[in-house]
Amino acid sequence: MRYSVQIEETGEVYACTEQQSLLWGLAQLGRKGIPLGCRGGGCGVCKVAITQGDYQTGPMSAAHVTPEERQSGVVLACRCYPRGDLSLRVLGKMQRTVCAPGGGDAAKASEQHQPAVQ
Ligand code: FES
C-alpha cells in the first residue's frame, strides 16, 4: 500500500509504502544534503513531528525522542512507517536541507537554467 506524506513547511508530497521509512521517502526527493545518518534510530538527525495520520514506529533512541515527545507525535523518520496518508513537520538538523527556501541545492540547479536577463 502506498501513502502520501506531506511536508508541512514546503507543501511537498512524496509517496511512501508501509515497508518504507519516512526517511527513505524524504531521501527520494533527491535533495542534496539530507542527513541519512545511522538509519537505525540511534543518531537523532532525522527527527520529525507527525501532525496528522497513522503510523507505526520501530525502536528508537530515548536519548533523542523522549516518551513525552513520542506521545505528541515526535518520531525518528528512519524508524517510522506510514499506515495512512500523513503530514509531518521537520525538526532539528534536517530543517536546513529540507526546508531551505526554494529547496536548497535543487533550487540552485534550476536557477542555472533560467535565461540571463539582459
Ligand atoms: S538516521 Fe539516525 S536516527 Fe534516523
Give the beta-strand count: 7
Task: Count the DSSP helices.
Answer: 4
For the largest beta-sheet, the strand count, sense and barrel status come to: 5 strands, mixed
CATH class: Alpha Beta
Bound molecules: FE2/S2 (inorganic) cluster
Report on this structure.
The protein is α+β, with helices and mostly antiparallel strands and 118 residues long. The protein has one domain (2-100): Beta-grasp domain (Ubiquitin-like (UB roll), Roll). Helix content is 19%, strand content 26%. The protein is built from four helices and seven strands, in the order ββαββαβββαα. A hairpin with a 5-residue loop joins strand 1 and strand 2 (13-17). FE2/S2 (inorganic) cluster is lined by residues 23, 37-39, 41-46, 76, 78.
Offer a few descriptive terms:
118 residues, alpha+beta, Ubiquitin-like (UB roll), five-stranded mixed β-sheet, two-stranded antiparallel sheet, 4 helices, 7 strands, globular, disordered C terminus, binds FE2/S2 (inorganic) cluster
Write a compact overview of the structure shown.
With 118 residues, the protein is of the alpha+beta class. The protein has helices at residues 22-27, 67-71, 95-98, 105-111, and strands at residues 2-7, 13-17, 47-52, 55-57, 74-76, 80-82, 86-90. The protein has one domain (2-100): Roll (Ubiquitin-like (UB roll)), CATH 3.10.20.30.
Layout of helices and strands:
Blueprint: E1 2-7, E2 13-17, H1 22-27, E3 47-52, E4 55-57, H2 67-71, E5 74-76, E6 80-82, E7 86-90, H3 95-98, H4 105-111
Parallel strand pairs: 1-7
Antiparallel strand pairs: 1-2, 3-5, 3-7, 4-6
Bound molecules: FE2/S2 (inorganic) cluster.
FE2/S2 (inorganic) cluster is lined by residues 23, 37-39, 41-46, 76, 78.
